[in-house]
Amino acid sequence: MHTRTNNRAAREAIFESIRSHLASSEHLNAREEAIKHKTATPSASVSEALTESTSIVDSFKASLEAVDGHCLVVHDERELVHAVDDIMRELRQTKLSSLRIAISDGPDVQRLVDLLDTDLDEVGVTPSRSDVFRFDIGISRAQAGIAETGTLLLDSSRERHRLVSLVPPVHIAILDASAIVATLSEALTLLRRDEQVSPIVTLVTGPSRTADIELTLAIGVHGPQELYVVIRS
To answer: Which terminal CB of the chain, N or C, has fewer other CB atoms within 10 Å?
Structure first.
């Protein structure tokens, strides 16, 4: 009898807590609706809204940096090589004791690594699942970018880069400015081949993060702790 009474009392306490918190949040809901009403642009598409006041590249850069990614914009191959060299030197001075590089099988990625001035400890092209965990940096291309969220799309049917981009502590992605679009639907259209989109598309938005552990945000638990995107305009 006492157990049943205690259970009923606990249940009523939980319900009362829920009711009180719902009531106290009404003014917050009203404020959020007012903000949405002010910022809504029903007459303009997301693509138009992104490009009215700033370039699509600047929008992508701002979105990526908002989720703790790093973004550099270069204009030719020389600047690209210089930018990646700078990233490597900074990482060696601050975070990495060695530079073991895993790269995708993209020919321009391999050419980029050949042109670097930085002394590398090891370079592996699309290492196996058992080997990829010992590399410090992964370098690949990205087939598309979404300006709205700073997201990269990696199409594994065009380039073998899935493990390279997801396992090493640092991922450096090379992205052409012409492959940046406003929304996910536009990006999937860009990747479409023969009226079909590859079944193996990886979406990357900033460094790896999770809040599964006691609801505390942690970076790099299941993937790269650092993401660098070098945009070639």
So the answer is: N
Q: Mutual orientation of helices 26-39 and 2-24 as an angle, nearest 10°? A: 40
Q: Domain map of the chain by residue range?
A: 1-40, 46-232
The full length of the chain comes to: 233
Secondary structure class of 190 (helix, strand, coil): helix
Convert the pLDDT of each residue in 93-116 to its tens digit: 999 999 999 999 999 999 999 999
CA atoms of 216 and 225, how far apart (whole Å): 16
pTM assigned to the model: 0.74
List, for residues 73-92, the tens digit of each pLDDT value: 999 999 999 999 999 999 99
Token pair for 228: 């660098």
- Domain 46-232: top CATH class: alpha beta
Closest CA to 162 of 102, 115, 226: 102
Which tens digits make up the pLDDT trace of 118-150? 999 999 999 999 999 999 999 999 999 999 999
CA 196 to chain centre: 24
